[in-house]
Amino acid sequence: MFRPCSTLLATCVALWSMPSAAFTNRAIRAALTSRRFAPTMATKATEAAQQAAIAKIVPCDAASLKECGARLRDGELVAFPTETVYGLGCNAMDADAITKVFEAKERPLTDPLIVHVNGRSSAFELWDTTSQARSALDAICDQFWPGPLTIVAKAKSDVPPILMANTGFVACRSPSGDIARRLIDAARVPLAAPSANKFGHVSPTKASHVWDDLQNEDVWIVDSDAATSPESSDVVCNVGVESTVAKVDCSSECAGRVVLLRQGAVSLQDISECLQKAGLGNQFHVETKTQKTISDHIATVAPGQSIRHYSPDVPSFIVAKDRCDDASELSQAERSFLSTSVIIDFGGILKRWEPACVAYRDLSAGGDSAQAAKALFDTLRWTERVEGAQRVLFPEIVEDPTANDALVLTLKDKLTRAASGTRIDSLR
Ligand code: TXA
Ligand code: MG
After folding, report:
1. Do residues 151 and 177 share a domain?
2. What is its EC number (predicted)?
């Protein structure tokens, strides 16, 4: 059982970086009573506490969203679906409300939050731009908003430092999801919202996922349909993976830079082509700083991009391409290994091992990256419920470098992080 230990270690490192003693005590308490540590640390008292859920599932009709809007203005938390994943929202201009989000997620204060707005003009109320930055931001917002692209730019002085982890740069995104847009309108304030999961766990794409992680927090969870049962909500997160994060930086004397910090449905090439089309190709250097996830070290490039991320509570591994391609007969030892393994496949690469493993799902039998991305987080969470599962195996995905398929890169990145960068080349 090394997962809980490594997660606990990561949590301790995260807690160590928190400045306030009260916050630290609260976060440690929350970590110790969290469902994620239940297998090793739960006591009768904490189990009883967990039964008394505090969170509330609310419908997404107009009256409910109006109430949610008022709750957000009052400094409380509301989790809501976007076209990517569920966000845990609060008033982005209210430092106390932001603190509650960090507490509820057990997230280190070093990891800044994205602000959700309904249009460019609201973002420019938070961004402090030069004319050069403005021209790039205009072009990028024009092309990609509303949609799954988050843009980081220099912040105005009244943006709460805690929102930005004291970086002086604020991230904004205009979601295309209908419920998210209606909620932002109802709140009449910009909404800071990280993914609505416990820190380090798999991002949620259903109300029931949010419930699983945050039922002991003072959070309202907007269901995607009018049902009140946490199990009955549909997937509304049609993209299924988090937004691309790109930073527009014009602080140097020479050319401006656009730096990709996280891969999502929008690619570096898409952004580069957008700037060229706007006649800004010569003024901006476009580059990626997403971490190479295949080596097992902790990222320092973008906060929140640590290699251990999106992890299910079951140890997970990538099966090296050579082993995936090796079609020879399985040995007895390999069969025994597979009999306690769950396989999450892509494009049928590991289909021939389906009869030997404890459970099998293919994210997309046809190898469609959009279909796979949409299914990914729900499937990672499903592995936690498979009886007899001792580990999860993913095939190593080799992308076509000429295809400009952002979602294949995203899929590969998420699976690598879920596996903490660990690749195996034999089944034992
Ligand atoms: O699709 C999404 O982006 C979802 C939905 C809810 O909008 N949100 C989301 O938030 O994924 P979160 O907090 O889980 O991830 C935000 C990422 C983190 O990697 C964070 O470090 C980065 O964006 N980020 C936020 N503000 C930043 C800033 N000022 N500078 C650099 N990176 C930033
Ligand atoms: Mg997240």
Report:
1. yes
2. 2.7.7.87
